[in-house]
Specification:
The protein is α+β, with helices and mostly antiparallel strands. It contains 15 helices and 21 strands.
Length: 514
């Protein structure tokens, strides 16, 4: 998944709020039975398949559930499916949990799962469709669901953790107007772009959620600062220092920090012969140039400029997920002399000029520091701030940039998704390299990625994943910079432990015993 980095503008008309039967919020209940949350983005749709960014997935995943889920440490655990097995390398049989009810009282059946996956296969506009790219067919078999893939794919389980199950017959219109999931919370009311109110699903199959209601306030936490000062919020996903300062004024709140799985990194166009926007040869096609840029950087200083809590790294895949190397060092040493030698050997003894594109660069103090460091080896960088995420993504896919900065994460709990989508050579017919924005291509890397994905047992797969990750890192297709720390402002009366994927799961949050 890619970090959108900016609040999403509402895409829905005001008419939709009138269509939603519960658009008028119910009278407030006992304040002690209500969790009041502020998030720095807009809830723009309740369709569980429309948007699989962090912003799009976080709220609806409290209402809908997948076949398998990820626990706090991003390990695969049962959810709507209690067990699964592989009769052969391309067949997955999931046995559904009994007694699961949708919010409207209907029982979960295999036909609901088949409908949800078939809907994704049929509609290219649904972002979650990318999570089932390997699925060739899905059928019901009594209380089981049978998925068949075009080739052995070990990453399928992690991908399915991002695929939420809706009721059979659900459409784009019904999912926004009448949300109906199996999750621990149901939608009580929704004002698009402003507020989402959830109520406890009393027939939920799992542990009873600790709060009867959850009130989610959308928008930046700058707007939430007055409510923090007044002590009216339970938990805030913080992105602005002003919100942290407001929380520090009294004794009501504590700050909880969690390393973000999102990696801020440099990406290169390595396929265009000419550097986009110029008539000059593209220097990034040369591995020596990419390696020189890597050696020119002091990540500790870059991370410190980004945030007091940012963590420098030179690893594409964190050590904490399957495929990461626990023995890897956190940062490689800077070597300006070797960087200059590499540039000279590549034909750039005096360096070169390049434009660095990114989203929201004005607020990122780390990038001027990065530019200063690259200037020391003759790489003269001009920063260009792209105004919107859609424009940024379109330009990347059209190969209009030579150098960019972006944040990516493997939110499936293992490295396979990142490897197959970002680093495999683009092969649309096989659903490989679908997010390969730089045009990276290596037959050796492709073989390593496919070998890892074909082994279904995690223990046997781990060394193969690590080999593929190591090859990618040696190519310097990405230059890792740092991970931010996510900050939550939390009422001291709450029992709250952040998840490794940073998602807010309201059923996991409780109140301190009196």
């Amino acid at each position: 998944m890619r970090d959108v980095q900016t609040p999403i503008a509402s895409r829905l008309s005001a008419i939709l709020a009138a269509v939603l039967p519960c658009a008028c919020a119910p009278p407030p209940g006992d304040p002690a039975d209500e969790l009041r949350v502020a998030v720095p983005y807009d809830v723009t749709s309740l369709d569980p398949h429309l948007d699989n960014s962090l912003e799009g997935f976080e709220q609806v995943a409290n209402v809908y559930e997948p076949l398998v889920a990820l626990d706090r440490e991003m390990r695969v655990v049962p959810a709507l499916a209690v067990a699964w097995h592989n009769p052969d390398p391309t067949t997955w049989v999931f046995r559904l949990r009994k007694g699961v009810r949708f919010h409207d009282g209907a029982m979960l059946g295999a036909e609901d799962v088949v409908h949800s996956l078939a809907r994704l296969q049929a509609d290219e506009s649904l972002a979650a469709r990318s999570q089932i790219a390997e699925v060739a067919s899905v059928t019901a078999d009594g209380d089981a669901v049978v998925l068949r893939t075009g080739r052995p794919s070990a990453r399928l389980l992690g991908d399915l953790a991002q695929v939420l199950i809706a009721r059979v017959g659900a459409t784009r219109e019904s999912l926004d107007a009448r949300p109906n999931g199996t999750g621990p919370y149901a939608v009580a009311s929704w004002a698009p772009g402003r507020r989402l109110r959830l109520r406890r699903h009393d027939a939920y199959w799992g542990p009873r959620p600790g709060f009867g209601f959850v009130e989610v306030q959308a928008g930046t936490d700058e707007h939430a600062t007055p409510a923090i000062e007044a002590g009216r919020l339970s938990i805030v996903r913080a992105t602005y220092p002003s919100a942290e300062r407001a929380a520090a004024q009294g004794s009501r709140y504590r700050l909880v920090r969690q390393p973000s799985p999102y990696l801020f990194h440099l990406g290169f166009n390595v396929v265009s012969p000419v550097l986009p926007g110029t008539s000059s040869p593209n220097p990034f096609r040369l591995r020596q140039v990419r390696e020189a840029i890597d050696l020119a950087l002091d990540r500790v200083r870059i991370a410190a400029a980004a945030s007091p809590y940012a963590v420098p790294t030179d690893r594409v895949v964190p050590r904490s997920i399957l495929g990461g190397d626990p023995a890897a060092v956190a940062d490689s040493p800077r070597d300006l002399a070797q960087a200059r030698r590499l540039l000279a050997a590549a034909g750039y003894p005096g360096g070169f000029e390049v434009t660095l594109h990114g989203l929201g660069l004005k607020g990122r103090a780390a990038l001027p520091e990065l530019c200063r460091q690259l200037a020391e080896v003759g790489v003269r960088v001009t920063l260009v701030d792209v105004p919107s995420s859609p424009a940024f993504q379109r330009a990347l896919r059209r190969r209009e940039y030579g150098l960019w900065v972006i944040a990516d994460a493997a939110l499936t709990g293992e490295a396979g998704w990142l490897l197959t989508t970002q680093f495999h050579s683009p092969e649309p017919a096989r659903h490989l390299g679908t997010d390969n924005l730089g045009g990276y291509a290596s037959a050796e890397v492709d073989r390593a990625i496919e070998a890892a994905d074909a082994v279904l047992k995690p223990r046997d797969r781990l060394p193969l994943l690590q080999k593929a990750v190591r090859l990618v890192e040696e190519e310097r297709w990405w230059i890792p910079l740092y991970h931010n720390q996510a900050t939550f402002i939390v009422d001291r009366q709450l029992v709250f432990q952040p998840r490794a994927d940073l998602y807010l799961r309201y059923a996991e949050i409780g109140a301190e015993a009196p």
